[in-house]
Amino acid sequence: MVIANARFFEMVRRAKEQWETAFDALSEGIAVVDDEGRVKRSNRALADLLNTPLQNVVGTPLGEALLGKPNALQELLTATRRGERPARWWRARSG
Fold it and tell me: CA 7, CA 64: separation in Å to the nearest integer?
C-alpha cells in the first residue's frame, strides 16, 4: 500500500510539472481565474499582454485588466459554467 501511494504521488507530481511547463510555454496569454474573475495563475504571455510583471498578475481582476470593466468577465464565466457559449460577448469583442 505504501509503495502504491508513493508511485501515485510521484505520478501526480510529474503530471503537475508537465501541466505547468505546457501552460507556461503557450504563446497565447492564458489565466486560471476564481469565481469572481480574479487571476489565480497566469502564464508569462498574459503578463506581457498586460504589461505587468508575472508575479503581479495573480489577484488581478482579469476583466478589468483586459477590458477596463471590473465585471466584464462575470457574464462569460457564468455562461461557461452553465455549458453555454456566450456568442454576444464574442461578437462584441470581434466586431
Answer: 43
